[in-house]
Specification:
By secondary structure, this protein is of the alpha/beta class. Helix content is 33%, strand content 15%. Strands 2-1-3-6-4-5 form a six-stranded mixed sheet, sandwiched between helices. Strand 1 (2-7) and strand 2 form a beta hairpin.
């Protein structure tokens, strides 16, 4: 196990904690991370593009002119796809772009994402963040002291003061351990983990 320092909001070392090597220090394979991130982004796609086909277009079903004798094409009703304002043939309809990846691969990718932050010294563990009021300035000051920009903060429980104080910061996101995912870990440069979250993360990934 790796022994990592635990800091407070003043960037002072207060204790140490052990991190499991099978979660925070495994070989990182970009192909595994890429496949899981692709799956996450595909599952987020709305797929709401839609057109009206012949049966959806409003209009009369009357035959425009007689079948024979005019020298023109054998025209049907005004909703025909070959006429302006008619239906669209083979157009898009609402669909899902999502696909699934085996659970073991998703869990492996999450371990690799955490390992990539640990191996690149982009992971910091802090004992706690206490805010007595909703104040964005306090969160900014804490991150400046810790020298962390574009930060993903992992908490073990709901922290309304912290969540509301950081919601206006474009490069900061608060995430609970049960919502931890590969895309958000890789998106932000730094990972700031509250010490009580470590047992929850390790318990989730060691099942």
């Amino acid at each position: 196990m790796a022994v990592v320092d635990v800091f407070n909001t003043q960037a002072e070392k207060v204790s140490q904690i052990e991190l499991r090597d099978e979660i925070f220090n495994i070989p990182v394979k970009s192909c595994v991370l890429h496949s899981v991130v692709t799956m996450q982004l595909a599952n987020r796609r709305a797929g709401n593009a839609s057109v009206k086909n012949r049966s959806d277009v409003k209009g009369s079903t009357r035959k425009l002119f007689k079948q024979k004798g005019t020298g023109r094409a054998r025209r049907g009703d005004i909703k025909s796809p070959v006429l302006r304002g008619g239906g669209v043939v083979f157009g898009p309809k609402p669909r899902s772009y999502g696909f699934s990846i085996p659970k073991k691969v998703r869990r492996l990718a999450l371990r690799m994402a955490l390992s990539s932050k640990f191996q690149s010294d982009r992971l910091m563990i802090i004992n706690q963040i206490e805010l007595n009021q909703i104040k964005t300035k306090q969160v900014v000051e804490i991150l400046q002291v810790l020298k962390m920009d574009q930060t993903l903060i992992i908490t073990d429980c709901s922290m309304p003061e912290l969540e509301l104080s950081s919601r206006n910061l474009p490069n900061v996101k608060i995430l609970h351990t049960d919502g931890l995912n590969v895309y958000d870990i890789l998106k932000y440069n730094n990972l700031l983990v509250l010490e009580p979250s470590i047992p929850a993360i390790q318990g989730r990934l060691l099942k």
